[in-house]
Amino acid sequence: MKFKTIIIAALVAVIGTSCDPKSYLDVNTNPNQLPTASPSFVFTNALNTSARNIAGNTDGQGSSEIGFYWSGQWTQGNGYIINTAQFAYQFTNGDFNYWDPYYDNLQDYQFVIDNADANSQKYLKGPSKVMKAMLYQHLVDMYGNLPYSDALKATTSLAPKFDDQKAVYESLIALLDEAITDLKANAFASAFTGSDIVFAGNITKWVQFANSLKMRILIRQSKVSGRDTYIKTEVNKIVTEGSGFITASEVTVGGPSFFLATAGKLNPVYDRWGYDANGAKRALNNYPRLTQFLVNSLKASGDTLRLKRIAYANGGENSSTPGVSTLKEVAANYSGTPFGASSGYLPANTTSLGPSLIVKGEYNRPYILMTASEVQFLLAEAKQRFTDVTLPNTAKAYFEEGIVQSFRVLGANTAGAAAFKGSKIQNYDWDASTDKLAAIAIQKWISFVNFNGLEAWAEYRRTNLPVIPQSIQVPDNKRPVRFFYPNTESGSNTANVTAQGNIDAFATKLFWDVD
After folding, report:
1. Hey, where are the domains in the chain?
2. If you average pLDDT over residues 114-139, what whole number do you get?
3. Does the domain formed by 40-257+367-500 have CATH 3.20.20.70?
4. DSSP conformation class of 275
5. In the 8-state DSSP scheme, what is residue 467?
6. Cα(74)–Cα(289) distance, integer angstroms
7. How many CB atoms lie within 10 A of CB 387?
8. By CB distance 3.0 to 4.6 Å, which of 35, 173, 348, 369 could disulfide with 251?
9. Please, are residues 375 and 246 in contact by the beta-carbon 8 Å criterion?
10. Pick from 290, 249, 277, 450: which is nearest to 357 by CA?
11. Once rounded to an integer, what is the mean pLDDT over residues 264-282?
12. Measured between alpha carbons, how far is 247 from 414 in angstroms, rounded to an integer?
């Protein structure tokens, strides 16, 4: 395994001083002398790095991006050479290496956990453990078995053993329990709340985030045989803990007090797909397109309020009126691109990423890690599957609130969500939906659009919903169910990678992908 040792030296601060988030890339050091790193500076940079690793930026693709494609939400715009790894599924262990940047990022959080006490910054341990749990959950969902118990030990374990993915999932629940204990015991020092570019030192919100991640990890296993009692017990423990879940707001990184109109310091999504620091369009601005399946599905259900926030009308954003489409924003002017199409769908004739994600000049939006809408749909599924859990509301109430929160985060009028009650529209109107779990899965899928591609792909693999078209570039029904272990890991940790057996990216399913 690749371990990062130099990065700590690049994140230097005088121990005991507060962190100015705007200076996270402005630390000057003597290259001939290894200085002392403050956990607060490492923590701030680690959060920013997490956002970049997930979202991507001008350095390359993030983990969420491939999820948008493989969950059937985004496709490639015409005018670019077709990416055969993404849309023909012709990839090897040299493609899609999210492993190395994730483990590098995990090493940062581990540094904070290991050094917080000695630097009188105990309040950073809980948040770092929450982030560590989230990143490991992502890694399991991409790769399956992986180094956990023997990992993040620097030179003492250069070839760490792999842990069983199911055991790692269980360990993450225990890690989040530890995080909650640490959070409740260690309030942020007021001078250091600026180092927390997620919740600005709000311990309650960090605990709610931890509980929300627990729900994600638990419900991901809900179709696995023999897990019902374990899942119900853990859900009831969350209810007993009493802090609740994130509600009516998102878990975000950065924002106006952090991202700047300076090269390398923009919101990572804006930086990759939108504009540069001077407002010039990025070369990849026309690359991601909303799929024909997504656009037509929303139209067919009368879900045009969300459509107009998810996508710009054909022709894209009006350069002189940021946030508004060039064409009139009526349903007829929204045209999706068939998944994997390489010709016939030019930018002027198709929809692009909408104002919920990119508006010219809004370079300092916070980057979203988790939405309140996702949490409501997790709670809806928990209550629908396990009617005896102690969650206080009904599955219907959670489901309907999930749609409301999806409208809210997109910037659509939430009255539009209420209009679906009693509408008789399948998978929108709870009472009219014949398969309640399918309705939850499909609404959750919609709620992920533009915000969390990795979760959308994981949920698609778990539920097989919605029934999305195969890529035009693929002649059969095979779809990726995971990634190969990267060649960097097989080169440096050969025996342990080999011990995982012959990995087939189209057949070697993860433990929670049971059908």
Report:
1. 40-257+367-500
2. 98
3. no
4. B
5. -
6. 5
7. 10
8. 369
9. yes
10. 450
11. 97
12. 15
Neighbours of 156 (CB within 10 A): 8
376, amino acid identity: Q
Could you give the CA distance from residue 6 to residue 107 in angstroms, rounded to a whole number?
11
Q: What angle do CA 50, 284, 358 make, to 5 degrees?
A: 65
Evaluate whether 120 touches 139 at the Cβ level (below 8 Å).
no
Q: What is the three-class DSSP state of 156? A: helix
User: pLDDT, tens digit, for every residue of 211-256?
Assistant: 999 999 999 999 999 999 999 999 999 999 999 999 999 999 999 9
Tokens 């998944």 sit on residue: 339
Q: Match 């991901």 to its residue by tokens.
A: 220
For the cut 60, the answer to whether the pLDDT of residue 109 exceeds it is yes
**Where does the pLDDT of residue 20 fall: very low under 50, low under 70, confident under 90, or very high at 90 and above?**
low
List the structure tokens of 166. 């199911």
Closest to 30 measured CA to CA, from 14, 16, 10: 10
Residues ≥6 apart with Cβ < 8 Å to 56 = 62, 64, 65, 268, 269, 272
| Phi, psi for 281 (deg, rounded to 5) | -60, 140
**Long-range CB contact pairs, 324-331, < 8 A, 24+:** 324/355, 331/299, 331/304, 331/307
Tell me the three state secondary structure of residue 333: helix
Residue 468 contacts residue 412 (beta carbons within 8 Å)? no
What pLDDT score does 36 carry? 63
Backbone angles phi, psi at 340, to 5 degrees: 90, 0
pTM of the model: 0.94
Which pLDDT value is given to residue 37? Answer: 84
**How many angstroms separate the CA atoms of 503 and 482, rounded?**
9
Cα separation, 132 vs 116, in Å, equals: 15
